[in-house]
UniProtKB/TrEMBL annotation:
It comes from the Bacteria. InterPro entries: 6-PGluconate_DH-like_C_sf, NAD(P)-bd_dom_sf, UDP-Glc/GDP-Man, UDP-Glc/GDP-Man_DH_C, UDP-Glc/GDP-Man_DH_C_sf, UDP-Glc/GDP-Man_DH_dimer, UDP-Glc/GDP-Man_DH_N, UDPglc_DH_bac. It comes from Sporolactobacillus nakayamae. GO terms for biological process: polysaccharide biosynthetic process; UDP-glucuronate biosynthetic process. Residues 313-415 form the UDP-glucose/GDP-mannose dehydrogenase C-terminal domain. Keywords: NAD, Oxidoreductase. SUPFAM superfamilies: 6-phosphogluconate dehydrogenase C-terminal domain-like, NAD(P)-binding Rossmann-fold domains, UDP-glucose/GDP-mannose dehydrogenase C-terminal domain. This is UDP-glucose 6-dehydrogenase. It is an enzyme of class 1 (oxidoreductase). Its EC number is 1.1.1.22.
Length: 439
């Protein structure tokens, strides 16, 4: 089938590439010509394991094309996916400007009746709004049907998630569209749920809100564990063995970040508000997360009092491992606060340094070398559980830092190993480790 995908960010690019891999002829359209130039040469614009090989392979086979001109991809397309951003507005609601512009681009360029599939995460009602917008603006008598096909991939495992997802949700107006979309997706060998459009839109927000709730719940339990002398890792293990609870998303830490949980939880609160429903549970989830992101700072100030003039190693800038994405990373909250308290920060990340420089500027130093970050540091703050950090030989903290004092926002280390390594160690929801060992 001939498919066009509008937007080549995390979702659009991975979707377009995956659809080309399963045999469709795909044109990916992006208004950013620098992205299109790189992608056309087979150079990925995002870090995603497995993506580069698939881009190169499908460009060579003739199944995958990139363009910055809507008139190059849309006229022939039988199905068009919208995968542009839906960032957060100042009031928390989803900003639909990019989706609406994509709708106008479709209306101006299609030459036949097609199905438009919205992959972007959009509030309930948006699909019908976009369908009407397109159909009001087509000039040559053609019209579109609309379908909601929300995306559930995670950054860092986007390719794997696309080929081996838990489910594909297809919300349509009629059985014929549902059948066409089911056929397009059939080679993914993933269970397909056919439903109505509003339910499909709601499934996406509810899924993200529920996962965020699990994280805030375990973080709140972690904070209780600290007051009560329990260990949250043990508690999560004991809870997760109950199949009704499950072990996933029970990792306590510095709070959730990323381009979606923060914005989608806020958007759902707004959406509920529009329907005169106070979503108090989700409001608390957001509040817990906001507090969690600065919890380590309280621990640091409790330990030191004044930290002015100290050298701090910050390990990890990305919002999670295996991505160079910094959107809503706890690092963006923590580092400016540390800087405002007069410390000098050297930040380590294996792949996100270039993106971080654009956001955090030149007030801090950056390195892709873990040992360089630790050298002569007065204390270390762990923000991202990169494998490089988790696998580090704990004696290096002792060898390289002025004093091995570590504030770990991701519970990277086993407490018995920490004891052996003679570190002063503060983590989340576990007993602090032996400050008296430090001379
Ligand atoms: N990033 C993620 O892991 C996931 C994101 N989502 C949702 O998918 C949507 C897209 O997210 P991302 O891929 O992260 O966004 P992104 O911001 O990385 O990419 C959006 C792309 O669309 C392009 N664009 C904007 N307007 C355009 C237009 N009129 N024509 C052509 N290109 C246009 C931009 O230049 C940009 O390259 C959002 O609604 C998000 O909530 C859903 C699941 C996972
Ligand atoms: O809508 C989206 O954009 C996507 O949002 C998340 O994916 P992603 O943001 O890529 O990453 P996650 O692995 O879900 O992690 C999100 C945040 O939660 C944190 N987290 C995750 C799990 C956990 O147990 N504890 C925890 O603190 C991570 O460190 C990270 O900051 C969802 O997992 C995807 O299903 C969804 O498609």
């Amino acid at each position: 089938m001939k498919i066009a995908v509008i937007g080549t960010g995390y979702v659009g690019l991975v979707t377009g590439v995956a659809l080309s891999e399963i045999g469709h002829v795909v044109t990916c359209i992006d208004v950013d010509p620098s992205k299109v130039e790189k992608l056309s040469k087979g150079i990925p614009t995002i870090y995603e394991p497995g993506l580069e090989e698939l881009i190169k392979k499908n460009i060579s086979s003739g199944n995958l094309h990139f363009t910055s001109e809507h008139q190059n991809g849309l006229p022939d397309a039988e199905v068009v996916y919208i995968a542009v951003g839906t960032p957060q507005r100042a009031d928390g609601a989803a900003n639909l400007d990019y989706v609406e512009q994509a709708a106008l681009d479709i209306a101006a360029n299609i030459k036949q009746n097609i199905i438009v599939v919205i992959k972007s995460t959009v509030p309930v009602g948006t699909n019908f709004h976009i369908k009407n917008l397109i159909n009001q603006h087509t000039t040559n008598g053609v019209h579109v049907k609309i379908a909601s096909n929300p995306e559930f991939l995670r950054e860092g495992s986007a390719v794997k998630d696309t080929f081996h997802g838990d489910r594909i949700v297809i919300g349509t107006e009629d059985e014929e569209s549902a059948e066409i979309l089911a056929q397009i997706n059939e080679p993914f060998d993933t269970p397909i749920i056919k439903t109505d459009i509003s339910s499909a839109e709601m499934i996406k927000y509810s899924s993200n809100a529920f996962l965020a709730t699990k994280i805030s719940f375990i973080n709140e339990i972690a904070n209780l564990c600290e007051s009560m002398g329990a260990n949250v890792e043990e508690v999560a293990k004991g809870m997760g063995l109950d199949h009704r609870i499950g072990p996933d998303f029970l990792k306590a830490g510095i709070g959730y970040g990323g381009s979606c949980f923060p914005k989608d939880t806020n958007a759902l609160v707004q959406l509920a508000g529009n329907a005169n429903h106070e979503f108090n549970l989700l409001k608390s989830v957001i509040e817990v997360n906001n507090n969690q992101q600065v919890l380590l700072l309280d621990k640091i100030l409790n330990r030191f009092g004044n930290i002015q003039g100290k050298r701090v190693a910050v390990l990890g800038l990305a919002f999670k491992p295996n991505t160079d994405d910094l959107r809503e990373s706890p690092a963006l909250v923590m580092i400016p606060k540390l800087v405002s308290l007069g410390v000098s920060v050297i930040a380590y990340d294996p792949i996100a340094v270039n993106n971080a420089r654009k956001q955090l500027g030149t007030e801090i130093s950056y390195t892709e070398d873990l040992t360089e970050a630790l050298k002569n540091a007065d204390f270390t703050v762990i923000i991202t559980d990169w494998p490089e950090v988790k696998k580090a030989d704990l004696s290096t903290y002792n060898q390289l830092m002025k004093e091995p004092i570590v504030f770990d926002g991701r519970n990277c280390y086993d407490l018995d190993e920490v004891k052996k390594a003679t570190m002063e160690y503060y983590s989340i929801g576990r007993p602090d480790q032996a400050p008296e060992l430090i001379s």
